[in-house]
Structures are given as C-alpha cells and as structure tokens.
Design goal:
mainly beta, four-stranded antiparallel beta sheet
C-alpha cells in the first residue's frame, strides 16, 4: 500500500495506456499528481498552483484530462508532462467533473454549463443558462444522451437534466475482405451505427504508403498495375468520433495468378460460383439451383 503523509488526501484515480494517475485534494491547497505503472510504486509528477485544485480526472483516446478550480484543465499524453489550459471563459468557476465518451471529454460547471473537447485543450460550450442558479456536479454520456446532475445553489433542491448527444456506436466495412488483381478495383461500403443524430460520415484511408493501393472518399479501392502483391488494410473512420472505425483486408494478386470460373453444359437448372474470379488457393462456393420438378 502506498502512503505519503506529506500530501493532502488522495481524491481521484484513473487508468489508461498502462498508466495509473492519482490526484490529491484538500480545500485551499494545491493538488499533486502522482503516476504509477503498476499501482504499487508511485512518483509525483506535477503540482498545481494553490487555489487551482483538481476535482476530477478522466482518460480517453490516449489522453489524460484533469479539471478543477478556476476553470483549469490539465492535459497529458503520458502522465509525466502536463499542460495547463483555461476552459473557455470559465477561469472564475470550478469544473466539477470530467468524463470521456463518444470521442470527446465533457466537463460541467455552474449555471448549467457543459463544455466539450476532443483534446482537453480546446473547448466548446455545449450548453449553459447564465441566469440559472443550478450548478452541475457531474455528467454521464451514454445511449445517445447526456445526463447532468446538480443542485440549485439558492434552494439546494436537486436537479437532473438530459439532452441528446451525437454518439457513434460502431463502424463496419463490407466486404470485410476482398481479392483484387493488379490494375483492378473493389467497392467497399461503410455502415455507421449512431445515436442522438450523429453524422454517419467517414473518412477512408489505406495502409499502403506507396500510393499504389488507394481508396477514394466513397470507399472505392483502386489497385495500380504495379502494386506489390500482398495484404493491405483499408479503414473507414467516423468523422464524429475518431476512435470508432472499421476496416477491410485487401489482398492484391498478380493478374497472372487470377482465374475465372466458367460453368457450362447446364441442363435443368443453373449454377453460380462465388467468387467468379479468384486467385490460386481461394475457396469457390457453388450454388446449384435445379429447375422446378428436378433435383
């Protein structure tokens, strides 16, 4: 068990990319940030200014983001080096909590304020009611909705408020694999499952750095005649949430290794081959359909 009697109480902890991050909190004191790779041995890596204590910390998309007093956010990619940023014009307000969902960090504050950021540095206000006396204390994102909880700072009545949030659930690409001859093409299709009205658009990319196996904005894969035979990956990534993507495996073969399946001498039915064009070693499926009354 790790203890350090020289610091205020440990208050929050999170985990990501093989790293634990723990923060301290005591009213009126600076916050210290500690880092560990095993949860047993810890090292202090950062200390905030006094009056800028950290209230909460979250991890998402290879980034740690902590928020707290005076509208301050603290951002790190490795848990060692931290950058401080002021969230919008919230420098006189406390940021009560932070969470990561749907490709964004979300934080809440007074007057029903909700702000979001993809990187923890640049923030956008999603919602606020400047005249409201409701201060949000926490927020959760799921099922295509944001649910924030808080209290009225005049009456101390509790409040729960909810609003739709665009969420990308998954991205799939079909077909998931295809064999393409040198100089050939293949059309891929991306299916984006969303909630809350999120855009279903994607960006396409190819793993081929030589530019001989490319994909356009509509998912059409083009293989140059001089492309090196082998396996490549084509990926469709959501434009709303870059953590959601799907991919297909493209196997490029030489045109001399491709065979066309021809079926002839049919009588009393028909037979189809899938695929009708294939490379050596591929499995061909035959679908035999006899005419009515025959078997």
């Amino acid at each position: 068990v790790y203890t350090d009697n020289s610091v205020p109480n440990f208050y929050r902890v999170t985990y990501g990319d093989g790293v634990y991050i723990a923060t301290t909190y005591m009213d009126g004191e600076a916050t210290k940030i500690y880092r560990s790779t095993d949860g047993l041995s810890w090292a202090q890596v950062y200390t905030t200014n006094r009056g800028q204590a950290i209230f909460d910390i979250a991890y998402g998309n290879h980034v740690f983001v902590a928020v707290g007093e005076a509208g301050q956010a603290y951002v790190s990619n490795d848990g060692i080096s931290w950058t401080k940023a002021t969230v919008l014009n919230y420098n006189g307000m406390g940021l009560a909590s932070v969470t990561y969902a749907a490709g964004k960090f979300y934080t809440v504050s007074t007057n029903e304020r909700v702000a979001s950021s993809r990187n923890g540095v640049n923030w956008l206000e999603e919602w606020s009611q400047v005249s409201s006396s409701i201060d949000f204390a926490d927020i959760s994102i799921g099922g295509g909705r944001a649910v924030a909880v808080g209290y009225d700072n005049l009456t101390y009545d509790g409040h729960i408020k909810s609003a739709p949030v665009p969420v990308v659930n998954s991205v799939t690409v079909s077909p998931t694999s295809a064999t393409v001859v040198q100089g050939g093409t293949e059309q891929l299709t991306a299916t984006v499952d969303v909630s809350g009205g999120a855009a279903q658009t994607v960006t396409w990319s190819s793993s081929d750095s030589s530019g001989n196996v490319t994909v356009d904005g509509n998912g059409k894969v083009s293989v140059a005649s001089n492309a090196v035979p082998g396996t490549y990956t084509v990926t469709a990534t959501s434009t709303v949430d870059s953590t959601k993507s799907g991919s297909a495996t493209i196997t490029v073969v030489s045109d001399i290794d491709v065979y066309t399946v021809t079926i002839s001498h049919l009588n009393g039915g028909h037979i189809t081959a899938t695929p009708s064009v294939a490379s050596a070693g591929s499995v061909i499926s035959l679908n035999i359909v006899p005419d009515f009354g025959k078997r």
